[in-house]
Automatic annotation (TrEMBL):
Domain Alpha-L-rhamnosidase C-terminal: 814-885
Signal peptide (residue range): 1-32
Gene Ontology annotations of biological process type: carbohydrate metabolic process
Organism: Pedobacter westerhofensis
Protein name in UniProt: alpha-L-rhamnosidase
EC number of the protein: 3.2.1.40
Amino acid sequence: MNKPFLINIPKLYSGGIALVLMLTFSGSQAHAQQLSVSDLAVEYMHHPMGLDALHPRMSWKLKSDERATMQTSYEIRVGKDAAGTAAGRNLVWQSGEVKSDASVQIAYAGPALQAKTRYYWQVRVKDNHKHSSAWSQVDYWQMGMLSTSDWSAKWISTYVGDTVVGPSPYFRKSFSFSKPIKSATAYITAHGMYEARLNGKKIGSDFFTPGWTSYHKRLLYQTYDVTDLLKSGNNTIGFALGDGWYRSQIPFKTQHGYYGNQLSGLLQLEIEFTDGQRQVVQSDESWKYLKGPILYSDIYNGETYDARLEVPGWAENTASTSKWKPVAVVSAGAERLEASISPLSRKHETFKPKQIITTPAGETVIDFGQNLVGWVQFKVHGARGTVVKIEHGEVLDKAGNFYTANLRSAKQLVTYTLKGAAVEEYEPHFTYQGFRYIKLEGFPGKPSAADFTAVAIYSDMKPTGTFSTSNPLLNQLQHNIQWGQKGNFVDVPTDCPQRDERLGWTGDAQVFSRTASYNMEVAGFFTKWLRDLAADQLPNGSVPFVIPNVLGDQAGSTGWGDAATVIPWDMYLAYGDKDILSNQYSSMKAWVDFMTGKSVNSLWNTGFHFGDWLFYRPDDDNDGRAAITDKYLIAQCFWAHSTQLLINTARVLGKDEDVRKYSEQLENIKKAFVKEYITPSGRMVSGSQTAYVLALNFDMLPEELRAQAADRLVENIKSYGNHLTTGFLGTPYLCHVLSRFNHNDVAYDLLLQETYPSWLYPVKTGATTIWERWDGQKPNGTFQTTDMNSFNHYAYGAIGDWMYRTMVGLDTDESGPGYKKITVTPKPGGNLNYAAAELQTLYGLTSAKWTRSSQVLQLDVVVPPNTSAVVVLPGGAEAAITESGNPVKKAAGVFKTSTEGKDLKVNVGSGIYHFEYKQ
């Protein structure tokens, strides 16, 4: 028997936080934790409300400290009450013992589920060590409306034909009951944005509801458990409406009311009493309305609020209703009502002022220290009728003055009129701003930092990934990448959160989706958005530039339309979710067929394309090293890429005929590319970095020409002094290609470059988010063009994908997507002493960290239960490698070792591993 030994990993960093993992093992691992099940989820959510999936998918995680633990079977039971389910009585469905290692996305397979009904469930499992878990804790999900007949509520508005943009209306209804209640559920949606209250308290924690969808085709409703907000006797429920995306000035400054001109709401409250009886309170003719103090509220322009017009207790029993008017019942829209499936916008981090500045121009400006998206809460005391104005901006100009020219026509202005109370507190309702700085006008007295709080608001995605290194600038870059995602994932993946745009640009989302899936759990977020992409896709298969589409027939650009294929595949890799592929397959296929229809002789060289958007443009267009890339060359590459992804998807879904058809098409696309864009000697017609990157990344070149193409790419980079020149489409793949073709040192040179153009130049300049342009603020302190210069634009943050998957090496094997099969293939480089990444997968925590010192390489790896991993130790083929002090080949949990060139490949099961060797 082996002697017990202690594994101590004191520096497994996670976002700068040391994770201490100490486990005692013996030969039999007698001290291993008992097998258990935790973290139950349904459709990626914990006890979700209002599902309309007819076969909800259940997931769970295994807990076990014993190495190489795999689930061998599971058993699920579902019932209609918690106690009965826990006791195994009165069950709706039992799966029986199922021999399987599947623990994510297991579809309910019992009798048809009933609308508006809560279901409770448990799971227990067995593993390959002959352990059996106890039944998990009881969890639940609740079904929503499953047909239009489930809705009895009516759409209500102020009066028929009220299309005037103005004060937000408040709606209310009083009701009473005396019986003890078992549960109460509210179903709510609106044309516009709503904020609902019950007995004066906000319903739910969400903002900007019901969210932005293709309103002409589908509208989401939210479901809330409001049992705790009700009381025996008299009650009052109500909601306020704002213009939101439905009626705000969108897109740009061209029009109001893109989706409709009249705001309206729909609410249905269902109360179940302990005696089994029910009471329904619903929006109808009996409701009343009143215009409130929100005089104006717009997505881009902010909010105007007059506190003198407040209606105290407007959603409480005590409010006077003498001035309230009868509502009008209006017709429903033609759109489908669907349950929310994505995380809604909520409040997150808060920031107190870093400093209060008097600028050279005499302005009073508050710096919150972080470019964020949300709004400012403030306290104020002053005379009745005093008007306070707050403007929001991202940067100060070279002289240190407040700067808003890059907002274009967006005002980002909050105007508050005081009512004259002792202390007044305020925050906006139906608008959000992108800002780091605010400018105060009319604020009475001297502003105090204690009176102001900036609140970050974004979709409530669970944080999943962390990344850190020994280089503080890279750590700040990771911070900026994450905050670029937070600020632009506000219900849809916007391009920027501050100027008069804030649209779901497909190209931006496409290049960033893989990185996004590391930082946060975005399965629900992108599932929702991809449904709108399919809904708004043009009849010929062309994909609009923005989703939801508010730009008409502007569609079909390469790299932008490819969001239809790239993002579903990225989500499949990240979460192993076949439903995303099957649901989007028709859309994916339609986009590929659109490109095919625009081609002649397998060459796509027609139509408008954005090309390598915002690439670095030097003044050397004629010296043979220009950064300009032929747009049709790019189109051919992305056509091939999307075709390959369609083939991959067809293979996963068992569509063999499509695999054959599109494989033949892909071969022709690549032949046409070589004929059109490659000289006989292997030189590309466009000699830019992006041209070589795309050709190499998408395997457009014959095998024998790839190495020299990679060498030419390196020559180009060095000719620019180890600087990149790529734009939106070339940048995500640049370091990947360099590492793949044995130029990892050049990839590190680019990543660690601190002068313009580079990823670290904005960091050195003080950026706290990713910029739209490489030189949004120039080295001389001046700004790029005001027409298009966002300081919160996540596209270039796509480098995060390389940092996770190549630098640290943490990835998923395509044969076991969703991190069922993990790969750890680190590529240390640069002047870094360590690099570490963690990821909360659907199976649990996985992580990797390499450390270099005195020619010794240490690699710490965590593999969650019910998964396996392949760990590649760079330069380890001939080294004497130990794992937790033992020879690697004899270590517990190690199944197999093999050499791969100069590297050692180690196949391991779940557990915590510490590899160490001299390079």
